[in-house]
Amino acid sequence: MLNRLFVQCPQCQTTHFISFFKGAHYVCSRCGHHSRLDPPHWIRQLCDRGTFRPLFANLKSLDPLEFPQYRQKLEAATQAASGWEAVVTGSAEIGGMALALAIMDPGFIMASMGSVVGEKIARLLEHGADRRLPVVMVISSGGARMQEGILSLMQMAKTAAAVRRLHERRQPLITILTDPTTGGVTASFAMLGDVSIGETGALIGFAGPRVIQQTIGQKLPPGFQTADFLLEKGMLDIVVPRKHLKSTLVRVLKIHRTRPFPQRMPAKEKPLS
Amino acid sequence: MKTAMDIVRLARHSKRPTSRDFIEFLVHDFVELHGDRRFADDPAIIGGIGFFESIPVTILGHQKGRSVQDNIRRHFGMAHPEGYRKALRLMRQAERFGRPVITLIDTPGAYPGVGAEERGQAEAIATNLYEMSGLRVPIVALVTGEGGSGGALGIGVADRIYMLANAIYSVISPEGCASILWKDSGKAPAAAEALRLRAVDLLKLGVIDGIVAEPGEGAHERPGETMVQARKTIAAALKELLVVDAETLMQRRYAKFRAMGVYAHGDGFDGLF
Ligand SMILES: [Zn+2]
To answer: Which of A43, A196, B116, B118 has its CA 20 to 30 A from that of A184?
Structure first.
């Protein structure tokens, strides 16, 4: 959709010149709809030019349950995504500051969390802990990768525990919740950010709106589970439109990089095993 | 030979002993404790303190109703954020006083509703995963019936995880899986097979530490004998765990969940960014 001369906004159907659309960070100038981005586009949006280096890129999904159609699904998704999994992890610089970065790709089986996503997220958090780097995550996900059954569920515990490792080395996790962030990813590392940023208009929740509607048997309130709704309910720190995302990140990173009173840092650091 | 769906039906059997039955059997001098001190007391999770054999413990679990009325009040064992926050409050209290924690898992999942989302269902579960991964007292979890997704894991990050022989533990219900994958919840039996949600499957996948036998037709028929088996298993686990120092316990718990997941090392990619 981003390769042609014109592009149509999926929300209001306005047609935009692709070059203008690009200049507007893939945000509709008419209705403000934020188009979903793939990892290369996110890297261009956020990172200083040429600083991104992939890490753990060789991890590949297997089919431990021999789940019907999973192999075919993985193959198709891998081809479409030019080789990466549902999350791209690496090191990068933003505003001249080094950090560890994860970007999830809703184009890859809805960025669902299987063993590879859990492993890459955990490794990135451990990398941040080892190298004393802040970790930034651009998150989106349809939830757990059900084709990996219970193993996908356990990635929630694994990633949440790894956030603790990062904190033991006094480095922050900064999460950017984009459209859509739901299910097991929301209920693990996505909701554990020291600073949680929602992208304008993103759907963010635990249960999907359809499931909730079926359970309660009535219409959902307008704006339910949008970033602004979560902000109002106290579940996010800030909601930021895409064009201000990088400058916001730079500010947050700068503040965390500066230690006010190093001699007064409270607890001793625990050694990593 | 029982099919996976037969096991699912047994795990959900209305006559199956509930957490309250287990607590009454396993613990003496039990004092039930209520409320999350934030919002409410969620009757879908019960908990408190008492003696397991001669050891003071904190014990908590999902509570399904024993009648239709009771089930409606308890949301069929589907907890709200206040339920997970009550569980966390009790676990932190256990840590403060050096008591081991026993959790009993029996839920179709976390409650999907408007209030649950407004009050941060995802945040409540994520925080429990994070806090349980660092709780400095032993935790033993027993899946007694339905281990439903994040709602189960929200009290399931433990040093030892056991399942009753006819319990299930899954990332999604077979009905939910079938309706997403095949647009037909009637194909739940096939999904139940594919998800590998039986105790024997989880033992093979390395997710649980052992299976508690259910004599005869199952726990609904012979609850007393089943609970005797459960007591033996928990007693043996606590005996091992109580002699381990907190630092080692933390490291082992981290390593346990860190090792979960199946993936391969492929070629990776480079030059794309
Ligand atoms: Zn538009």
So the answer is: A43
